[in-house]
Amino acid sequence: MVDQQRFVMANPSQLYLLADHIKLSLLERQRAISLNLEPNSQDGNISRSLDSMREGIEAIEQEAARLEDRGDSYVGIEPGTAPADGLA
User: Fold this and answer.
1) What is the pLDDT of residues 39-71, one digit of tens each?
2) 78 — phi, psi (to 5°)?
3) In sequence order, what are the residues at sequence separation of 6 or more whose Cβ sits closer than 8 angstroms to the Cβ of residue 29?
4) Which 3 state secondary structure label does DSSP give 65?
5) What is the DSSP letter of 11?
6) What does the buried/exposed string (b/e) look like for 25-61 if buried means 16 or more CB atoms within 10 Å of the residue's CB?
7) Segments in the chain forming alpha helices (H)
8) CA quadruple 22, 80, 57, 53: dihedral, nearest 10
9) How many CB atoms lie within 10 A of CB 79?
10) Considering the chain, what is the average pLDDT of its residues?
């Protein structure tokens, strides 16, 4: 049985959104530190988001390898590009 969350997070557009979420969370954490506030309240969420990102990337790599073994190509988002606004 396929883990539904892992399947969803293997979508490149959703991984870009997750990356943006992680970036914003890290910026908020940095701001809290600079204001001498407690930054640890979001550390668990950031850690889980990073785990989800890692799992999503691994799933995409596995799918790309599987398709390559079959002689197909993986049609995804090219590295260094972002999805167009409104398509994510």
Assistant:
1) 777 888 999 999 999 999 999 888 888 888 888
2) -65, 145
3) 39, 42, 43, 46
4) helix
5) S
6) beeebeeeeeeeeebeeeeeebeebeebbebbeebbe
7) 4-9, 12-34, 43-70
8) 0
9) 6
10) 77
Of 72, 68, 41, 51, nearest in space to 3 by CA: 51
Structure tokens at 48: 């889980």
Chain position carrying tokens 């988002």: 77
Tokens of 37: 């506030």
CB 60 within 8 A of CB 15: yes
Q: What are phi and psi of 38, to 5 degrees?
A: -80, 110
Question: CB under 8 Å to 73, separation ≥6 — which residues?
Answer: 67
Q: Single out the residue of 46, 62, 75 nearest to residue 3, CA to CA.
A: 62
